[in-house]
Specification:
CATH superfamily of the largest domain: Butyryl-CoA Dehydrogenase, subunit A, domain 3
Helix content: 40-55%
Number of domains: 3
Shape: globular
Number of strands: 8
Order of helices and strands: HHHHHHEEEEEEEEHHHHHH
Bound molecules: flavin-adenine dinucleotide
Number of helices: 12
Distance between the termini: 47 Å
CATH topology of the largest domain: Butyryl-CoA Dehydrogenase, subunit A, domain 3
Strand content: 5-15%
Strand order of the largest sheet: 1-4-5-8
Radius of gyration: 22 Å
């Protein structure tokens, strides 16, 4: 794509955002809205984005996207961040459920679900992890038994983000009890209003409850809600997880970390920590870490532009991002000291916050980064085998 066309794309989006972002949903205002009001308004905002085709831009045109190129995706992420656009409430549906639905779904499934994912008429969650199946997802035990024209689903999922608002769940379950590990698993599209589903929110260390336990007891799922082939759900799951660590992720991480580093340096200057001999060393390390991170991201993006696929380097980015996020949170906590322990419930966003409140939010949220989307140990395992060529560990 010509630079001129890309700049025209950037300008079109920038102008659209300038005249369409509702003030009450800007990050600093959205946090003041109670969740029961915020979620429907965020759904409406996404509906507006979908109408103008400014959401799910990587999706094919026939399913409501723009078939956006990689450079367009980069520009899109930069402009959304620059405009401080409101959160996209249906990001799990768009980024993780949509692509395998489009790749493996029947025409009927695509017609039924795709558009509603983009407009946020349907919110989606992911029922993959279970109490004894997280990193080792292939040991999952939730089971679905085919009885005539429907499956009967039994079992438990955990850490299911957004399940308390979701209309649909992409659930992995064992459909062939004789097979073990990756064989005999299927992917079902489960209506969250079906009888027999219980959702229990899990309160996190920071006070908020963003994810849940989900229990399925004798839940009937119509046979036509099987995504992909029976007993071949691992393929669907792999496609979903690949998208979770996809390209927008790399661009977003870069934007978030650079902003985090700038905020940290400002805090250090304001509090005189930039004169402390120990903290100065830590700040310099973080500065260099973020610069190295940005160069690694650039290398990955260049490879993507040339070859169309990210390699195992995406695991390096995830790992490095986690380490830097946690290091910055620890340094910020050292700077504010005991003030960072003052608040019962930290605010959800970092705009316009008391610095100590901001630090507390970042600090309490940081441990999750080394778990979500694959733990740091799993990332190191991938790097050891796929980048360094080391043998599989015992
Ligand atoms: C913020 C957040 C949101 C999430 N959202 C969802 C969601 O929407 N849907 C969903 O299904 N799940 C979700 N998860 C769950 C997430 O995918 C799992 O927590 C993650 O895969 C780790 O699994 P686990 O918690 O069972 O830990 P385990 O896999 O039990 O790991 C425990 C410890 O053992 C280590 N370990 C495990 N295996 C190995 C190995 N082979 N080599 C070396 N070390 C190993 C791990 O690194 C970890 O330190 C979410 C998690 C978080 C934190």
């Amino acid at each position: 794509m010509e630079n001129r066309e890309l700049e025209a794309f950037r300008l079109e989006l920038r102008n659209w955002l300038a005249s369409n972002i509702p003030d009450e949903l800007r990050p600093e205002n959205a946090t003041k809205l109670p969740e029961a009001e915020r979620v429907p308004r965020l759904r409406a905002w996404q509906g507006k984005l979908a109408e103008a085709r400014w959401v799910g831009i990587t999706w094919p045109v026939e399913y409501g996207g723009r078939g956006a190129s990689i450079p367009e995706q980069i520009v899109y992420t930069e402009e959304m961040s620059r405009a401080r656009a409101p959160e996209i409430i249906g990001h799990l549906g768009i980024g993780i459920a949509g692509p395998p639905l489009i790749a493996f779904g029947t025409e009927e499934q695509k017609r039924r679900f795709a558009r509603r994912i983009l407009t946020a008429e349907d919110l989606w969650c992911f029922g993959f992890s279970e109490p004894s199946a997280g990193s080792d997802l292939a040991s999952l035990r939730a089971k679905a038994t085919l009885e005539g024209d429907h499956f009967v689903l039994e079992g438990q999922k955990v850490w299911t983000t957004l399940a308390h608002h979701a209309d649909w769940c992409m659930a992995l379950c064992r459909t062939d009890p004789q097979s073990s590990r990756r064989q005999g698993i299927s992917c079902l599209l489960v209506d969250m209003r079906s009888p027999g589903i219980t959702v229990r929110p899990l309160r996190q260390i920071g006070g908020q409850a963003e994810f849940n336990e989900v229990f399925f007891e004798n839940v009937q799922v119509p046979r036509e809600n099987l995504l992909g082939e029976l007993n071949n759900g691992w393929k669907v799951a792999t496609a979903a997880l690949q998208n979770e660590r996809g390209i927008l992720y790399v661009v977003e991480m870069q934007i978030i970390l650079t902003k985090g580093r700038d905020d940290l340096m400002r805090l250090a200057r304001e509090r005189g920590a930039d004169r402390d001999p120990v903290l100065r060393q830590a700040l310099a390390d973080v500065y260099l870490g973020v610069e190295t991170f940005r160069h690694t991201c650039q290398r990955i993006l260049d490879k993507l532009l040339r070859m169309g696929m990210p390699g195992p380097e995406a695991s390096i980015v995830k790992l490095h991002w986690t380490d830097l996020t946690q290091a910055m949170a620890r340094i910020a906590m050292s700077i504010v000291g005991s003030e960072g322990l003052l608040y019962d419930t930290p605010a959800a966003h970092s705009e316009n916050l008391d610095p100590a409140q901001w630090v507390q939010r970042v600090f309490l949220g940081s441990p999750a980064t080394s778990i979500a989307s694959g733990t740091s140990e799993i990332m190191r395992g991938i790097i050891a085998m796929q980048v360094l060529g080391l043998p599989k560990g015992s």
